[in-house]
Write a structure and sequence with these properties.
The complex is a heterodimer of chains A (about 280) and B (about 290). Chain A is about 15% helix and about 25% strand. Chain A has about 280 residues and is an alpha+beta fold. In chain A, the strands form 5 sheets. Chain A has a 4-stranded antiparallel sheet with strand order 3-4-6-5, with helices on one face. In chain A, strands 7-15-8-9 form a 4-stranded mixed sheet. The chains are: A alpha+beta (about 280), B mainly beta (about 290).
Chain lengths: ~280, ~290
């Protein structure tokens, strides 16, 4: 695994022939203002994505930049809806991120397709983020992480209140990155955003539930990391299973809730499931 | 462990870094899974064609020092890509053309004389278990088979009936570049750099850094100065993206690149130009030109 010490997936100046990347890397951070100038814009009525910029990313890709993460999530959801309805040209990868969505591998046999799509995108009306209509994926957490006191201090609450505040939050997977199945979950209000640790850990165990900037993440496997660890998921094997479709439990757009469990009882919990239908809701029908 | 009826390659000498590669696993970037796949795609496809395989069959990709393997059944193989001395049980055989390797004989692809990465294709292809539809090793994410180790056994597939196609004379293997010239499409973040930096990128002479790997081609040369110094929130990265980390030296993302990154991308090298980058040895002169 790379030494991209937190999550940004950054590659800095050194590495070796084994494909390891050493050096820094950290969270994509959070509260950034909208980028720059020269926007192509479809600004206007409430519910529009506001300003969006369509940037070239090589001959077959477009990087769409939105005003903030919420608008990026809404735009991503709109892209998936349109793809579902067959209204998009062939696009190999749709990759949401902090405030952008990358469309990569656009109709590679039709060179003009990218530019046509770019012109079209700026005129889209995007529905505002909706209230969640799917049952959330429930992720059990033992809130006993090594940075619990630090996070409690940053939040201005007692350590025992961190679990309550965190598990009361409705999260959604904004995007994946850093490692297969590592989701960047948004939902914490701004006053609960925390900085990365000043010194990243060389090894964060699989299942660690950690916070940085606006994000919460659950490490699918051991790796270096600089996020503040507040707890652990007892059975992290379900986060990433290449034999399952989809392989990631936390796919972009998925609603998520963390469910506090006590250390002793963790072993008896049912494993979380990917997908919309949960065992408990099926029992009602 | 190994079924007796199976066909296998026994790894005699893994070399510095030898991996199993096919056409990679596109379409999973939204889950944090990169493309992977042979860095010199045209070489891997040509090697496959010469042994009668589909173009996306899994092959071995070596790094600089080659590798040696011993099949437990007779197999037709091709060593292509980086030029090297090829032997079967110590006897020189053809490079870049099909050779018959008897059961129990050692096929040795020597150190690269020109270029960096040789490709070893075997009739029937290599068939370790696929992950998300690909047998490629991804060294960043750890997916796919681990790099070869001495004594490893790799399963071989059944060759297509009829054997390899008749071989009609010399095949045009591209040579390693004496000077690497990479075309650049500006963006998406060229506006995060000074005008002088953009001029530098397209006029200065760089060299391929020895720290290059399957994740990225790293460079030595004048650093690029940013006009915006704030942090860039993580965003999706394409293959060929020229990412500029804090030291200012451009990194060209290759097949095992991260799916998202937080340093600005000044421009993108089109994929068809990246095969040459895969064969550029450290120290090779490198120029970026406007696409």
């Amino acid at each position: 695994m790379s030494g991209a010490g937190g999550t940004g997936g950054r590659v800095s100046g050194s590495g070796d022939a084994d494909g390891r990347v050493s050096g820094s890397g950290d969270t994509g951070g959070g509260a950034h203002g909208p980028s720059g100038t020269g926007s192509a814009s479809s600004a206007g009525s409430p519910g529009d994505p506001g300003t969006l910029r369509v940037l070239p990313a090589g001959p077959h890709a477009l990087l769409v930049e939105l005003a903030d993460g919420e608008h990026a999530e809404a735009f991503h959801a709109e892209l998936l809806r349109r793809r579902e309805r067959g209204e998009l040209p062939a696009v190999r990868d749709i990759v949401p991120a902090a405030r952008t969505v990358l469309l990569d591998g656009i109709a590679e046999r039709a060179p003009e397709a990218r530019d046509r799509l770019a012109r079209e995108l700026v005129s889209w009306r995007v529905e505002p983020p909706r209230g969640e209509d799917r049952a959330p994926v429930e992720v059990p957490v033992v809130y006993d992480g090594p940075d619990l006191d630090e996070v409690a201090a940053l939040w201005g609450v007692g350590a025992d209140e961190v679990a309550a505040l965190h598990s009361r939050t409705a999260f959604r997977v904004a995007f994946c990155g850093f490692a297969p199945g590592f989701g960047y979950l948004t939902g914490l209000p701004k006053r609960l955003h925390v900085p990365r640790r000043t010194t990243p850990r060389t090894r964060v165990p699989a299942g660690a539930v950690a916070l940085a900037g606006p994000y919460t993440g659950v490490y699918p496997r051991p790796s270096p990391g600089g996020w503040q660890i507040v707890g652990r998921m007892p059975d992290p094997g379900t986060l990433w299973d290449p034999g399952r479709e989809p392989a990631a439990l936390l796919v972009p757009g998925t609603p998520v809730r963390f469910v506090p469990v006590e250390a002793g009882k963790a072993a008896t919990l049912p494993a979380p499931r990917a997908g919309d239908v949960r065992a408990d809701s099926r029992a009602d029908t | 462990m190994i079924p007796e009826s199976g066909r296998h390659l026994h790894v005699v000498r893994p070399g510095a870094l030898t991996t199993v590669q096919d056409a990679g696993r596109p379409g999973h970037a939204h889950l944090g899974v990169g493309r992977a796949g042979a860095l010199d795609g045209p070489a891997a496809r040509l090697a496959n064609r010469l042994v009668g395989n589909p173009p996306d069959a899994a092959v071995l990709e070596t790094t600089l020092t080659g590798c040696a393997v011993r099949p437990d059944r007779p197999v037709v193989a091709v060593v292509g890509g980086a030029g090297c001395r090829v032997t079967v049980d110590g006897r020189p055989v053809a490079w870049g053309a099909p050779v018959r390797v008897p059961a129990g004989a050692v096929l040795d692809a020597g150190p690269a004389g020109t270029g960096l990465r040789s490709y070893l294709a075997f009739a029937g292809g290599l068939v370790p278990d696929p992950v998300l539809g690909s047998r490629s090793a991804d060294l960043l994410s750890g997916l796919g088979p681990a790099p070869l180790g001495e004594g490893d056994e790799l399963p071989l597939g059944e060759p297509a009936s009829g054997g390899p196609p008749p071989h009609a004379g010399p095949v045009p293997w591209p040579g390693a570049p004496a000077e690497l010239v990479l075309p650049v499409h500006p963006g998406p973040r060229h506006d995060w750099f000074t005008e002088a930096a953009l001029r530098t990128l397209l006029t200065a002479s760089y060299r391929v850094s020895p720290h290059s790997n399957r994740i990225g081609l790293r460079t030595e040369g004048p650093p690029l100065e940013r006009s915006r110094t704030e942090e860039l929130p993580s965003e999706g990265m394409v293959m060929g993206a020229i990412q500029v980390p804090p030291d200012g030296r451009p990194v060209v993302f290759l097949n095992d690149h991260p799916t998202t990154g937080g340093y600005p991308v000044v421009g993108v090298v089109p994929e068809r130009a990246l095969a040459a980058a895969a064969q550029a040895v450290p120290g090779t002169r490198l120029r970026f030109v406007r696409a």
